[in-house]
Structure formats: structure tokens, C-alpha cells
Task: structure prediction
Amino acid sequence: MNLTLAGIKETNAWEKHGIRLPKYDVEAMISKTKANPTWVHFGAGNIFRIFLGGVAEDLLEAGFMETGITCVETFDEQIIDDIYAPFDNLVLSILLKADGQTDKRVLASLAEGIKADKARLAEIFRNPSLQMASFTITEKGYALKDANGDFFPWISGEVAGGPAAAMSAMGIATASIYERYLAGGYPVAMVSMDNCAHNGAILKGAVTTMAEQWLALGFVEAGFLDYLNDESKVTFPWSMIDKITPRPAESIAAELAELGIADMAPVTTEKRTFIAPFVNAEVPQYLVVEDKFPNGRPAFEKIGAGVYLTDQETVNKVEQMKVTTCLNPLHTALAVYGCVLGYTLIADQMKDEQLKNLVLQIGPVEGMPVVTDPGILSPDEFVDEVINVRLPNPFMPDAPQRIATDTSQKVGIRFGETIKAYVAKDGDAKKLQAIPLALAGWCRYLLAVDDDAQPFELSDDPMLAELTALVAGIKVGEPASYTGQLKPLLSNANVFGVDLYEAGLGELVEAMFVELIAGPGAVRATLVKYVG
Result:
């Protein structure tokens, strides 16, 4: 059994194993997509493949869409070579239920997979048929500047070189939409689907910043800025996406191989992306999108796939509920403490009394008082599902090491927004205890030494060299080795979204950190003290 367009024509073999196949003419859909694309997506990773790819698959099967998605990868182009092209852009979706059962389905909706091919992107963006460009490029994909407010070196190169020099996701997106402006100023929606507070505004800010720089250097016309700011032409809808999508599990790869499906083994790219021809993920999923599409959109309302269309205010409330309280901060807290305590599965951490208490304190206790009920989803029901169903799912191979990736880009969103809400309400955030403990845990994690004083490997982070240099002289078992090294970090509002000292938390985080480095076992002892 081969996961290719030719291979899935051997329907009996797939159906014998209960694997659903596309029920429409895949080749015709691909041809229509290439000729008249309606949906292009930047970021060819797993949550896109299984969630948005699954949504598009539902729409195609129901006859509500005739074209699929053009997938663009600007960061790790090896994904296209190793995972898209050999499998004709097909995806094997594996949904992991809490009872151990799986739903298996071949998705064909990812009609075209390309690298940062500017010529092809220019064709796509010049086509009047294009309705939306969406993004799942992670929080760091939108960043143009470092913690000091200076353009990153590669962004400086793109600024100086104009659209022709664009290499980053934001540079290429801006260059592509400039092509659309030049072609006739056709309307389009630019939709961030990443876990960023106010993600639509962040995307618009990055694109317009790049455009302003190019305008100042004479690379683009002045009318381009007017086009970007005209909501009858270009919109940047806000959204909230939620589906826990761990790295591909070796056990799933082995099961698929045993069924007779060829070449299912995961690969690790040169940029350390661990990815497979299949995607395993949980069943629950939520996508809440501001309904602002000037050139039309897919008929999301026609399917029951967890997609909600609403207004910006409601998206903001749902996003705040999920990203700052009900899921993402819980994930980050579990990630940093899980690495230090030697865990390799999030589900196992939820059996740990102190760690479960920690997430109960961060979410329902400390976060919930500043969450506004969005109306379309209940915060209490949402966080209950997260803590009691989703995170403890024993069949979800999700690792704290994966969640710990890029934490420096996440803490300001996942914890900073709640801290700022307390400051706005009370003048400071001194009522908080579990959130400072999570932040102290991240600082302790940066020492790359576990609670038994054994070294471990830190997950990737764009600030990793800077952060590890900051804590280099701090030793576990030597509390006196801490002499205030964290102060520049804890006062950095670019990292946390707020100066933690001005919020009344800096000293507390420092004190907790000193307790966490007291010696072997100090991490566990500190958790027992504060949440045990």
C-alpha cells in the first residue's frame, strides 16, 4: 500500500483496514486548484495538515469546495522534498481517541506543495480567484525584531534588498501581496491561525512594517500602503486555533507499517523538524475566525468540524480564554517542569499530583478571574475538557520537550496577558503565585540540569544562546551562585509582555528560582511547598 495518487486507487486494501479515502475526483481538484487557487497557506506543518487539511477535505467531499489548498513552506523546505512530493501531497490523518481507538483517513486536499517559489507565488497572488492566505508559522514566524527592538540581521537584508530579497515568511508574504496589488488590487484575506494574542493585528503589523520599509527605500508604490489599509481590499482577520498535534509517534509508524503501508517512518530534517507522512493528533479541535473575507471564503459554516465564524471581539475573548488561561499556559508550565523532572509524556505528568495542582492553579484559579466568557464556548467547560480529558489522554504521544520549544516567544502571550490584566485591575499582580512559579520553572529549566542534577538537552529557541549565557554562572546546589543574573530577563517587557518588577512579581520569581536551585530534589520540594 503506497500513499500516492496511484496507490490510493487500490481502494480495497485501504478500506480493508478501515482507512477512509477521498470520495471525489482528486486529479480534477488538483488541476482546478493550480489553475484558479482560492486558498494558499504558509507553514506546511502538522496542525495545518491534519486540521485545516481535514476541514478542506470535508468541504471537498460535501461538494462545498472545488479547489484545495496550495501549501507553502518558507522555513524548512526539506519538508516539501521529503514529506510532500514523494506522497503526492497526500496526508494520512490519525485521530487518537481517549479509549485507544483511532480514526484513519487519507487527506488529498493539500493540492500543491511548494517551497518559497516567488514566481509561483506571484502567479497565485495575481489570480483574482484567490480568497485567502492563511498562516501557521508559529509565534516566531512573525517576529521582525529582536528583544532590543532592532531588526534581525536576515530581516535587515530583506529590507535593504526589497521584495526580490525576501526570504522570511513575512518578507515573502509581503512581496506576494504586493504582486496582487500590482495585478489590479484584488481583494484578499490574510489570516493568521497561530497562537498569538491578536494574531491578525500581529500579521498586519509585520506586513505593513515591511511595506513601509520598502516604500521608504523606493521598492514599492505609495498606493500599496493604502491597499493594505483598505478593508474592502485586504483584511487581517483574527482567529483562534486549537488542536493538540504532537510529533509523529514511532508506535503509530510501526502500526501503519504492519498494516502494509509503505514508507511511513518519520524523518528528521536538517533544521530538526521531526515529521512523517502521517499526522497523529487528538480528536477535539476548535477554529474561531473573524468573518471578514472581502473576496469570499470557503463555506466553513457548512461543516461540523469545530469551525466558528464570528466577530473580532468574540475571537479575542476565545483567544484570551484559550491562549492565556485554559490551555497554552498550562502546556508551557508542564513543559518546563516536565523536562526538569524527567518526564517524556504530557499524559504522565497529569498523574503527578504537584504538576496537576500547578495547572489547576494557573488556569481555573489564577487565570479564570480575568477571562471574559466569549459566549460561543464556555471557559469552564473548555478548561475542564483540557485538564480532565485532553491533557491526560494516554494515547497522545505528546512530549514536554516539544512544547518547550521557543518558550521565549510564548511566555509574553501565555502568561503576560494575565499578568497585565491583574495589573490593570489591581495595580499589580501580587495575588499570583502559580504563574510566577511557572516563570521561575522556565528560568530553572534554562540551566539544562534536571532535578537529579543530571544534564539534559534544551529544546530549540531563537533566544537560547542569549538565555543560556545569562544563567551560565548559576549552579544547582549553590544558591549563592545566584547574584541577580535574571534581572535583565525578568525586567524585559519584550519577552514577558510586561516588566515583572513593575508588575510586582520580579522579586517573587527570583525567590522561587533560588529555592528551585537549592540542590537535587529542590524542584520537587518547591512544587510541594507552593502547590502540594
Notes: DSSP finds 24 helices and 15 strands in the chain. The two ends are 51 Å apart (CA to CA).
